[in-house]
Design a protein that fits this description.
Length: 308
């Protein structure tokens, strides 16, 4: 029986955790480590992260630390896992932690490493117009996603697929991949391949300001921003001096000044640096997301006015 310590926080890590539960004839999850409960919503109610909620439902012991490398080392030593598995954990592990499990630490990473290392691989794959991405299982070292590759599996990105939709598919693929990696460890067939540093790219943490639309870019690039930031932090522009969030758009071939509304009768169409976008779903400041057709019934944007 392989004794495992699982470390994860957001929704992305829930399906891989559930897969370990399904493998309980081979794997014993000693505990699940998450970030502490955080204030959430307008009332700032302390709320458990998705992994903690699911771990408790599955009957697992849960440990939470602001910084496991400072607060949790002795706890991990006491558990003495054979393997640690991290998935979107969001904390840096020290060498002392990496050295505790005899088989090391396996990380479930949502890209085809060495491309898109770092915090936001799914966002950047869409932002950069990639047509393919995947999941890599990597043996963690002290660098940022620089460890040896155990296995990787790819999938195609749909031309209209949003970050949220891709997130869910990659989470399912991550569960499949960690099962394969664990089975290879158990049967002794596991292999480790060095990453090609010449092909490495690094992603940064996504911030709200990254989601502001630059209408001078071509329509495809602007649409990639809209797709990449749906459902969060949501691409936005400015309309009548107020933020206007845009959730979904469709490529078109209209022309005009960048950001100019070129159609507002039967559809809401905005010109880009090259081509145009037909806005399909949006949200006014203080309102709820709505179809563009509903927006047009209550608002009549002037053709020729400019967003941004």
């Amino acid at each position: 029986m392989l004794k495992v310590l699982f470390l994860g926080t957001p929704d992305f890590a829930v399906l891989p955790l559930e897969r370990l539960f399904e493998m309980r004839d081979k794997v014993e999850v000693l505990a699940v480590v998450t970030n502490p409960d955080r204030p959430f919503g307008r009332k700032q109610v302390l709320t458990a992260c998705p992994v903690k909620k699911r771990a408790l439902e599955l009957g697992y012991k849960v440990l939470s630390y602001d910084k496991i490398r400072l607060e949790g080392v002795e706890d991990v030593k006491a558990l003495n896992p054979d393997l640690m598995i991290t998935c979107a954990f969001g904390q840096i592990l020290s060498q002392e932690l990496l050295d505790i499990p005899k088989h090391g630490v396996y990380n479930i990473h949502a890209s085809l490493l060495p491309k898109y290392r770092g915090a936001s691989p799914i966002h950047y794959a869409i932002l950069n117009g990639e047509t393919e991405t995947g999941v890599t299982i990597m043996k963690t070292d002290i660098g940022i996603d620089t460890g040896d590759i155990i296995l990787s599996k790819s999938l195609s990105i749909g031309k209209d697929e949003t970050c949220g939709e891709l997130f869910e598919r990659l989470s399912r693929l991550g569960a499949d991949c960690i099962e394969l990696a664990i089975n290879s460890l158990i049967d002794g067939s596991v292999t480790f391949t060095k990453q090609d540093e010449t092909k490495a790219t690094l992603t940064k943490m996504i911030k709200k300001e990254h989601a502001k639309i630059d209408w001078t870019k071509d329509a495809n690039a602007v649409n990639n921003v809209i797709r990449a930031f749906n459902p969060s932090p949501v691409a936005y522009t400015v309309y009548n001096g107020e933020p206007l969030k845009i959730y979904q758009a469709e490529l078109s071939d209209g022309c005009g000044m960048a950001g100019e509304i070129i159609e507002s009768d039967t559809r809401l169409e905005v010109a880009c640096g090259k081509g145009s976008l037909i806005i399909k779903k949006l949200q006014k400041s203080g309102g709820k997301p709505m179809d563009a057709s509903d927006f047009l019934r209550g608002n009549k944007p002037t053709v020729g006015s400019v967003l941004g």
